[in-house]
Amino acid sequence: MNRVKLARLIKTGILGVDVTEQDVRSDIEKAKGFPFSAYAVDLSYLELARELLEGTGILLTAAVSYPLGGMTLATKLDQIRFALRVRAEEINATLNISAIRSGDYASVRCELEAMAETAAGAIDVIVIPQFDVLTSEEKLRTCETILEAGVRAIKTDGHGGLCRPEDILLVRRALGRNLSIEASGGIRTTQQALELLDAGADFIHTSTAYSVMEDAEEL
Amino acid sequence: MRADDDGNEFLRSIVHAEFDAHATYRDVRRLCLEAAHYRLGAVFIHPVHCARAMEALAGSDVRIIAAVAFPTGAFTIAGKVCEARDALSRGADGICYVVDVGALRSGKDAAIADEMRALREAVRDRPLTAVLETSVLTDEQTERACILAADATIDFIAPATGFVTTREPLIEAVRRMTKLAAPHVGIAALGEIETLDTAHALIDAGATRLYTATGVQIAQELQENTS
Prior knowledge:
Shape of chain A: globular
Helix content of chain B: 40-55%
Radius of gyration of chain A: 16 Å
Strand content of chain B: 15-25%
Order of helices and strands of chain B: HEHEHEHEHHEHEHEHEH
Order of helices and strands of chain A: HEHEHEHEHHEHEHEHEH
CATH class of chain A: Alpha Beta
Number of helices of chain A: 10
Structural class of chain A: alpha/beta
Distance between the termini of chain A: 7 Å
CATH architecture of chain B: Alpha-Beta Barrel
Structural class of chain B: alpha/beta
Strand content of chain A: 15-25%
CATH topology of chain B: TIM Barrel
Strand order of the largest sheet of chain B: 1-2-3-4-5-6-7-8
Largest sheet of chain B: 8 strands, parallel, barrel
Oligomer: heterodimer
CATH topology of chain A: TIM Barrel
Distance between the termini of chain B: 12 Å
CATH superfamily of chain A: Aldolase class I
């Protein structure tokens, strides 16, 4: 696979407590040189990133209740409305992982439906089920709930954890191609990215996009 | 040991914390019952758990402190205000929020001042804690945040969220912050506080609130020492 082809499957971004305005500016400047699929920022930098990504063809992703998902539905919807106002193209919203782990899928479904309704088709809803803290059964049940609620895309992890090809295969085998899967979590090399794509991931999310593309020509 | 200490006052300074947003409903209920049983001052939880905590703590004097903008602080001011109000409406008695550390590092002090004022107004007279991440700040940036916090009449300031692995031990961060903060602003220590000795050392270093997942162990150790 060549670098450009791989870049189209990569979603990147800059997220976290220590990110400065200058960091956002210089990282986006660098990202503009590649046809990345999307670029994610925390909400505090959403307006700046909107300005910087205008006309690049790279989609802007807003991180909602990121990375923990411990915010209430009211807060998540408030954040989605903000993302809509700023004209972000995608949201990455962490689900209520506590509800999943408590077996309360009714609440999870409620949350998903409310998020989809608020997004109203004007912004792509990609939800984060935080795979690294879920059992296989919880992963599958959550993905089923996501599809039932009319949401079509997941990003496997917020922060921490390592995305494994087994997880992608698990979801793909059970649910077919109905769900778009963005593999994320500890992806730092071309090898890892290709393994996850082979397992059925549609996109790779990595904050270290350049090291992931490094060996693209050889592999 | 400190058998002569006012054990009650010490226990009230402990905030029994559930840092994990993915904690189950049972975990949260247990946290609350433990805090009530050991007469700890408060529980610290994510907003999604507020209603459940309020139910579990009905009739007790354990306070509920809600996490806002955790752990990155990288949300808008309006978003933080909305989250804080929402948490208060769901039973939170106080708010512990993460400062926009990225803005502070970008030299945007006016934005930090606006944020602190807006949260102070939203939280009214309930206790408000502003959390920094001093491991990514210079001493000068930390000092400026401390001054802004005092100006905005923030009740407590904390050097770290407990979510970032740092080289500097928590006690050193508390010591530095105690030197920099105004005397009327309390110091909150969030993180791993494993033993009673560590807890006492943090208080000696200037901490006035201890947010830890180990409130029960500390309270039990205190009981053993005083019995």
